[in-house]
Structure formats: C-alpha cells, structure tokens
Design brief:
elongated; about 160 residues; 4 helices; mainly alpha
Length: about 160
C-alpha cells in the first residue's frame, strides 16, 4: 500500500508543478496584456487562455494541498471530542469528500464528452475545450486518490 501512496504523492507533486507553471503563465500573460494595452495592442486571446489555465491551476493543485493538509481545517470544532469521535469524524469527512469528488469527476467527464462530440472550441484560438475539461475530470479522480491516501495514513498513523 505504501507504493500506491508514494505513486499518488508523486503524481500529485507533478500536478502541483503543472499548476504552478500555469499560474506563472497566467501572471505573465496578464502583465504582458496590460502593458500592450497601453500601446493599443492587446492580446485578443488573453482572457480565453487565462480561463483555461485557471481551471488547471485550481484542479491540479487540490491533490497536493490535500496531502499536505494545506486546506483550512476546522479542528477547533472537534478538538474537545474524545479520540474515537475524532477518528469517526475524520473518516466520515474523507469518505464524503471522496464521494463528492468522484461524482464531480464523473460529471465533468460527461461534460467533456459532450464538448468533444459537439466539437466545442474556444472562440478566438479555436482550442478544443474538451481537452482541459478531461484534465479537470482526471484531477478530480486524483483528488479522490489523495483523500483515500490521507484516510489510509490517518488510520494507520493513529491520528485524525
């Protein structure tokens, strides 16, 4: 099981770096567009690319954030509970989150298939939108794996 968890960590790390590169690209594109607008030469496709990259940034950064516990934790609500109840709460919240992200991934895959079938492309660059949509769906499934790995490590390590 440790190999699987290591693989999930490596995959989420790669996705995290991709998300970082996408974020840097958003910043550089936006700054360049703002500067060029001063000279009346805007980048027509800037908004289009920023939206697509933002989807990558958000979805690809989730698994690593989950594994590093970089999200907001409301432990003050459960810190007074007995250890058994903490474990129950920990397990229940992870299982609910896995279920939610599995449904998200499935529905986003359905949406991507519709985009692909319809031949939907971005307005200016005519970039096929289903590609990014499939990537977001894949990121949802990797998030499910990250949550399961977190659940496994939490139950194995005895902490909740």
């Amino acid at each position: 099981m440790q190999r699987v968890i290591s693989l999930i960590k490596v995959l989420s790390g790669i996705m995290y770096w991709i998300a970082g590169a996408a974020l840097v690209s958003i910043v550089l594109l936006t700054v360049t567009d703002v500067i060029l607008r001063r000279f009346r030469v805007p980048i027509d496709f800037a908004f289009e690319i920023v939206v697509l990259l933002a989807a990558i940034v958000v979805s690809f950064s989730l698994p690593r954030s989950t594994l590093e516990k970089g999200h907001i934790v409301t432990e003050f609500l459960i810190e007074k509970l007995p250890k058994v109840w903490k474990r129950i709460f920990f397990t229940a919240t992870r299982m609910v989150a896995v279920s939610i992200f599995a449904v998200f991934g499935w529905r986003v895959m359905v949406l991507a298939a519709k985009f692909s079938k319809a031949g939907q492309v971005s307005p200016i660059l005519e970039f096929p939108e289903h590609i990014v949509t499939y990537l977001v769906a894949a990121a949802c499934f990797v998030e499910c794996l990250a949550l399961l790995a977190d659940l496994w490590e939490g139950s194995e390590g005895g902490h909740a």
